[in-house]
Design goal:
This protein is an alpha/beta fold and 507 residues long. It folds into four domains: 2-136, Hypothetical protein VC1899 like domain (Restriction endonuclease-like) (Rossmann fold, 3-Layer(aba) Sandwich); 163-345, Rossmann fold, CATH 3.40.50; 350-426, Helicase, Ruva Protein, domain 3, CATH 1.10.8.60; 449-494. Helix content is 46%, strand content 14%. The protein has 20 helices and 17 strands. The strands form five sheets. The protein has a six-stranded mixed beta sheet, with helices on both faces. It has a five-stranded parallel beta sheet with strand order 8-11-14-7-15. It has a two-stranded antiparallel ribbon with strand order 9-10. Helix 6 packs across helix 7. The protein is globular and about 85 Å long. Mean pLDDT is 88; it is low at 164-169. The structure holds adenosine-5'-triphosphate. Adenosine-5'-triphosphate binds at residues 178-179, 206, 208-214, 277, 319, 359, 362, 399-400, 403. GO terms for molecular function: ATP binding; sequence-specific DNA binding. Pfam families: AAA_lid_14, HTH_8, Sigma54_activat.
Length: 507
Amino acid sequence: MNILYSWLGKTDINNMKKDVSGPISVIALKMAQPFDKIVIVANSWDEDWIDYENWLKKKLAIAHRPYEDVSINRVRIASPIDYKSISDVSQKWINKLSADSESLYINLSSGTPAMSAVSVILGKGKNNTNFCQSREGGEIFIDDIPFNFVAEYDASVARSISSKASALPVQSKAFKDITATSNQMKSVIEKAEKLAELDLPVLVLGETGTGKEVISNAIHKASNRSSKPIKTVNCGALPENLVDSILFGHVKGAFTGAVKDHSGLFEQADGGTLFLDEVGELTPDAQVKLLRALQQGEVTRVGDDKSTNVDVRVIAATHRDLSEMVANGEFREDLFYRLAVGVIEIPALRNRMEDIEPLTEALVNEINSTASKYKNYKAKSISTKAMQFIRSQPWRGNVRELWSTLNRALLLSNNVEITEQDIIASLIQRTKKDNNLDVHLSLGDVVDLNKIKEDIERAYVTAALKATGNAKVKTAKMLGLGVHQNLDTLLNKLKIELPKKRQGKKA
Ligand SMILES: Nc1ncnc2c1ncn2[C@@H]1O[C@H](COP(=O)(O)OP(=O)(O)OP(=O)(O)O)[C@@H](O)[C@H]1O
């Protein structure tokens, strides 16, 4: 039996809508030997599946090819660039289809580069797999990928096992200071440990203060490059006229002020790691320069006429949504795919509540130990009520905000046991500026202003109650309502009921 296996691509759908052949249909209709079965896997565009399947069947029937056994199968992946979930799905399908067929053809033209890469790696491990692609204009060709992945893989497994045996303690040590009690954070560390071993670019995502730099440094420390430097550059702070010089270096006399030869960060990180912090802030011009250096693996100092080869692993981090920036044309797609080979997403602290208490304890120990050098400093601990309060806070600035709040509380309070009040006094007061609504209305629009007002009131009252643990006086103060009776009026209007206070057991 001849089987065709493919991801469903956007081009396939778009072309179907124009009744024009796309990658899958070109291969299905033009391959010398017809397919007995066509298996398509997809994770989106559900609404078009039936149309697509019917359209393909019709085209096959017209061409007198088998058309009954065409199916689109739902698969779940974390994202179109998430290698782990793509590999899980592909492994299942490729194993099954390879066992069911004499010849399994895998279409590499549909789907994302990550999907094709995984298909090639998995398909190369089977003896009955062929890879095919289609070119614009309807031509198809069979790809003979002349590379023995299996032999290469065996050799690399042997290398990795021997390096693991000698490097294991170093690796776990690199991550040991990172508090990770929640399951979310445990899987972040697990992924980071795996990626540390593989010499691949890594993109670390997460809100500000979640620990992106800490994880990136640990990845470097746990990697085979740990004996070489990790160099950090804050891309948001790169002066536009000095980007080239900072990243690639310059020679004496290249510009006014270039009084001696200077190596750039790429050369300084040679053999090691370059950490590009806030990579989403790179200007378009700097993105082009960076991409070129990564593609060519060489850099040229400003004012020099020869280039130097560099061997640098790049770890990039950002709090911005890079995929959205790519979609909006603010970040180059080719650079994105180069950086986002391994992707780690660090969740916000408020979404991993189990970490708050152990983190607080670890940070308190660290602050106590640093402050022990002050003559009159006494080691502090956190009271149960203060810990409860800490757990109830949203920590919008994540671990960094928690750290600075604790630092202020421990250094400034005279209490050996830190109270809830000490923590409240140490919180940075944020003034909320949420009044800058940019509203546009067109003639004929109808707006229910009362409903909008009520939704806003409900959202703020609920959030404030959560933050204060339902304490009415504090909530009223937080919302600028004055006396707590005003809060009661608002709660009645919004029909929000507070949980009944527990009565103490009578003796
Ligand atoms: N899981 C953790 N365990 C212990 N300390 C942590 C953890 N996560 C973060 N920290 C501490 O929190 C602070 C902020 O971390 P880091 O600078 O890595 O955050 P970031 O995400 O890179 O922030 P930004 O986006 O603002 O650059 C640091 O002092 C770091 O040591």
